[in-house]
Design goal:
The chain is α+β, with helices and mostly antiparallel strands and 122 residues long. Helices cover 43% and strands 20% of the residues.
């Protein structure tokens, strides 16, 4: 039992590192949109890789999501729209999507598509 949990954790960590290293190595863009999702919420951060600082962040915990489940696709669209608006307010037009260990599917895809609709080029 313990070995299977460790093996699963190791595979996840390896997948995260593979995606993140590919994003950093192949991208010429200065900013990275990092996505984290849990069962109940979704989080997005816009990170400046040159300076190593978080420019802005949005999550379903910050937004007034009354009546909407924070772990839904609708909530992910709201977070994506808000992060796109914040990026436009800080004159950031381009970023690279860092999806971590998550597939580009469901909530992650909805967040990225909403950020694109708000004017952020991914």
């Amino acid at each position: 039992m313990v070995n299977s949990v460790r093996r699963r954790q190791f595979r996840r960590k390896r997948r995260v590192n593979r995606v993140r290293n590919a994003v950093k190595r192949c991208s010429t863009r200065q900013h990275r949109l990092s996505v984290f999702r849990s069962n109940d919420n979704i989080y997005a951060q816009l990170i400046d890789d040159v300076l190593g600082v978080t420019v802005c962040s949005v999550s379903t915990l910050q937004l007034d999501m009354s009546g909407v489940n924070g772990g839904s696709v609708e909530a992910a669209r709201t977070v994506g729209k808000r992060i796109g608006e914040l990026a436009a307010g800080k004159n950031i037009a381009e970023a690279t999507l860092d999806r971590g260990a998550y597939r580009y599917h469901g909530r992650v895809a909805a967040l990225a598509d909403a950020a694109r609709d708000a004017g952020l080029t991914l």
